[in-house]
Structures are given as C-alpha cells and as structure tokens.
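Thread: Newbie trying to understand structure tokens

Hi all, I'm a second-year student working on a class project, and my supervisor (Dr. K.) asked me to get a predicted structure for one chain before our next meeting. I've only ever worked with sequences, so writing a 3D structure as a token string is new to me. If someone could post the tokens and maybe explain what I'm looking at, I'd be very grateful. Here's the chain:
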Amino acid sequence: MKKIGILHGKERSFPDAFVERVNSKNVKGIMAEPVHIDKVMQGEPTEYAVIIDRISQDIPFYRAYLKNAALCGTAVINNPFWWSADEKFFNNCLATKINVPVPKTVILPSRALPDDTSDASFANLDYPLDWDSIFKYTGFPAYMKPFSGGGWKNVYKLESMEDFFEKHAETGQLVMLLQEEIIFEEYYRCYCIGGKYVRIMPYEPRNPHHLRYVADFAPTPEKLKEMEEIVLRINHYLGYDFNTVELALRDGVPYAIDFCNPAPDAEKTSVGEENFEWVVETAANYAIEKAKAHKDGADNLTWGEYVKKSSAKKQLY
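---
Reply by user tm_fold:
Sure, no problem. This is what the structure looks like when written as tokens:
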C-alpha cells in the first residue's frame, strides 16, 4: 500500500477534502490520510510515498522531518530543500533571466542589526546606501515588504522618500524589498500544480480579503495563453509542484508580482467553490500520479531547471 499524507496546521477544508477525494477514487494500492508523526529518527524512512506540505514554513521541526523523509525516498510536495533556500528577491532576479517581466526591485539590509552582530560585522557595506539611485530606480509610490515570507505581513505602501525612512524604521531586523508599484488594469492569481496544470483566477488584491476572488476581469484567449506560459515557465525553473503566481497587467503586459507561494491559500471560503473544486481534484490526481511513479529509496523530489542546469554545468568540469 502506498500512502499519500498531507501535513497541515489549523487549515481544515482543503486537507479534509483532499484526503476524501483521493480515497474516493479507489485507486488500487493507494490511500490518503493526514500525516501522523510519533518519532523522527535520522535516516529512517516514513510510511508515506508522497507528502503534501502545507505547514512546515511555520514549524522548523516539520521542515526537518520532511527533509529526512525526502532523503529516504518520500516525494514531498514541495521540495523542502529548495523551499528552504528560496526567497522572493532571488525569484525576481531569476525572472529577469527567463524573460518574465517583474517590478523594479532592490533588497535592503535590515534597519536593526541582527542578533550577535555589530557595526564591524558590516565592514563590506557602504552606509548610508546610495539612496538617490535606489529611489530613482524604483520611483514612488513603491511597496516595501519582507524579502522572504508571505501572508501580506509587514507590507507597506510608500508615497515618498520621507515615508520610506519613517516606515523602514519600524521593520527591525527584517530584510526588506523596495519595489516599484505596478498600477494595473487587471490582476490574476494562478494555481500551478505538477508543473503542467494551471488555473487562472481573476483576483482583486485591493478588495477586503474575503472578496479578493470576486473580480470580473475577462482576459482574451491570447492573453490567457500568454499568462499560462509565464506561470509554467516560472514553476519549471523554480521546481515547485504546487504554487500560485500573481500577475498584474499593466498596459497589457503581465508582471509577475508574487510567485513564491508553495503553500498557497486553498480555503473554500476565500477561493470560492469552483476554484476549490479545481484545486482539490487536481491536487488529488497529481498526488496519485506521484505515488504511482514513486520508487522506494530513490530521489522522488521535483528539481527546477535552474538547479538542474547548474548541476549539469558542474558535471562538465
């Protein structure tokens, strides 16, 4: 019996529906359940062929558990090694190399010194920074947000240089991004599962959270195809099995705004009935596909094109 597990926190609607959907398909030799952990011993495999991770970004113990599981052959969705290394500034840098439009973005050192450091720890950093060049590059209005993490936490809209310095003083040890504002005509949030299944959802981030999927944007078939190609390109290079990409259309050009969401919102009350049905069905089918392809003791993770190409180059030397 090949088990598919889902690792989650207080979230309930998607995990429960996912387990029920997989089991309702009655695929011989495959079943799903919430992950059960009563011990974690180094180098010992879990009982799961596949695990969908919805919570390890918040719980380091779970991240360590998943890395051990992956090392022993579990197909973890998403790859816990890549997810541990990934962050939003790198994603933007990568996007510039794969022809995906993104807002002009800079990364900033934390306003407060990290623990156990002093001014001497930053001997290579010129400070003050070249603020004139930075502000000229991004312009105002601009957005400031953490370079890693999500959930609309610590996000600021800035109207001026003075506004920036006032708000940046509040950010403590957070490393922040300063990003050009994309004033958009249309906005879309796009599920991508398995690097091949895409659902493009009209989305209005200016609405209250519970109404953000209530939007009447209507892209042409050509624009849908263009956005789907961008979503697939991003996920192929990053190597995520389950992600969302947010695209803002300015003058008809889709800009990737946020595309590192490896545990994306799948709550029925926020995404709506139709989107919820799609993500449950697609995730169930993909997890079953991964379980069928699973090989005991092998590396069953998904690795992105960036990592694979880098590895291939090293093997030439």
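A couple of things are worth pointing out once you decode it. Residues 104-180 form a domain with the Dna Ligase; domain 1 fold (CATH 3.30.1490). The chain has a mean pLDDT of 95. Feel free to ask follow-ups in this thread.
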